[in-house]
Amino acid sequence: xxxxxxxxxxxxxxxxxGMSSWRREKFVPKGGPSGGDGGRGGDVILxxxxxxxxxxxxxxxxxxxxxxxxxxxxxxxxxxxxxxxYIKVPPGTLVKDADTGEVVADLTKVGQQAVIxxxxxxxxxxxxxxxxxxxxxxxxxxxxxxxxxxxQLELKLLADVGLVGxxxxxxxxxxxxxxxAKPEVAAYHFTTLTPVLGVVSLDEGHSFVLAxxxxxxxxxxxxxxxxxxxxxxxxxxKVILHVLDVSGLEGRDPIDDYNKINNExxxxxxxxxxxxxxxxxxxxxxxxxxxxxxxxxEYMKKLGHELYPVSAATGEGLxxxxxxxAKLLLEHVEVPEEAxxxxxxxxxxxxxxxxxxDGDGAFLIRGRGIERLVAMTNFDNDEGVRRFQQxxxxxxxxxxxxxxxxxxxxxxxxxEMEFEFRT
Length: 423
What we know:
By secondary structure, the chain is α/β, with parallel strands linked by helices. The chain has three domains: 1-156, Spo0b-associated Gtp-binding Protein, Chain: A (Distorted Sandwich), CATH 2.70.210; 161-331, 3-Layer(aba) Sandwich (Rossmann fold), CATH 3.40.50.300; 354-421, GTP-binding protein OBG, C-terminal domain (GMP Synthetase, Chain A, domain 3, 2-Layer Sandwich). It is built from eight helices and 18 strands. The chain has helices spanning 171-178, 227-231, 254-268, 287-302, 318-331, 368-376, 382-394, 397-403, and strands at residues 5-11, 44-48, 63-65, 85-89, 93-97, 103-107, 113-117, 148-155, 161-164, 196-201, 207-212, 239-245, 277-282, 307-309, 354-357, 363-366, 411-414, 417-420. A six-stranded mixed sheet has the order 10-11-9-12-13-14, sandwiched between helices. The protein starts with a strand and ends with a strand. Residues 159-330 form the OBG-type G domain. Residues 345-423 form the OCT domain. Its EC number is 3.6.5.-. GO terms for molecular function: GTP binding; GTPase activity; magnesium ion binding.
C-alpha cells in the first residue's frame, strides 16, 4: 500500500538529574561536594533511508519518544547521555510542523538527517556550584525537560520523469511496456489510484526513473478527482511526458485535454508550466488516432512542440520516445529555487518572559528560560529554593509582577509550579 502522508508525535528525552553528594574518605579532610552532572536526553532525528519508499510504517506507530539521560552519581561521576532516536523516512519527505504548517525539513538525499527535537540538558551536580562565597552547596539541578511536537510528513516522489494526462489515455500501459513496473491496467477512469515508479533502462547503460502519476482532470488544483493527493508528486520531476489519447474514443478532444491539464499544472504551481515537456500521441494503432494525428501535430507545431506518435498496445514509437526523454534529461539544468517572498526582519529584543492572567485570576508567567529554571530546580532543597528566589528577583519577575498589580497572597503559576506571592 502506498502511503504518502502521515502525522506523527515526537518527544525528546529529559536530561538526567544532577547529584548532590559529599566526598567522605578516611584521611581526606574537607572532601567537599562531589555530585556529578546528569546526562543529556536523547534527540529525535529523521534520517533518509534508501530501503524505505512509503510512509506506511507510520500507520502503525505514530509516537516516538527518546530516552532520558542518566542521573549523575557520587564521586563526580556524570550520568550517561541517552542515545538518539532515529526515524527512517523515504527520500523526498517534506516535514512540516503540524500546528503551524512551517516547513521543518526537506529530506531528499539518502543519509540526510534532520534533528527535529533536541533532548534536555543534564542537571548540574552540587560540585558545579562551589565558589568563593559558597564552599559547600547542598543543592543540585534537575535535568531540563525534553521537547515535543506534532509533525506532518508528506512524500513527494523523486522521479526524473513524470507521466501526466487525463485518465485512460494509456499512461499505465506505457510504463508497463518501458519498465518492469506492473500497474493495474483497465478500461475505466482512475484505474491507477497510487503513483507507480518504474526504472527505464536504455541500451547505452543509461537509466532514469519514470513515475506514472494518477490521472488528472479539470479542477485538480482545487482537489477535484485525485487532485491534491498526487499533483505534488510532479513537482520534483525534471521532465514531463504529457500523454494524449489522439483517438478521441473517450469523447474528448486531445487538444482540449492538453490545454486543460497544462492549466491545472500552472494553477497548482507556476514552475510546472516551465518544466520541459514531451507531447505523446498514444493509441496510434487505432484508425481514429491516425485521422486525428495531423490536426493535433499541426497544433503542437504552432506551439513549438513536436508530437511523438506511439502505441502502448504495440510498442510502436516507445523506444524512440525513451531515447529522446533520456537526451532531454542530460540537457536538463537544475534551476535553484528562489524565495518567492522577501521577508525583512527587524531586530528587536525579545522578552524573556510574559505575564498574563489565568481563568481563575492567577498570575500566569510564561517564558522558555523561566519555565526551564522551574523544571530544573529541586524545591525539596531549601538552598535550591533560595537560589531560585534570588534568580526570580535578579531577572526582574518580582518587580514585573508588582507592576501588574500582584497582591500579597495572590497565586502565581510558572509551568507546573504554583505558589503564593510573598514579599
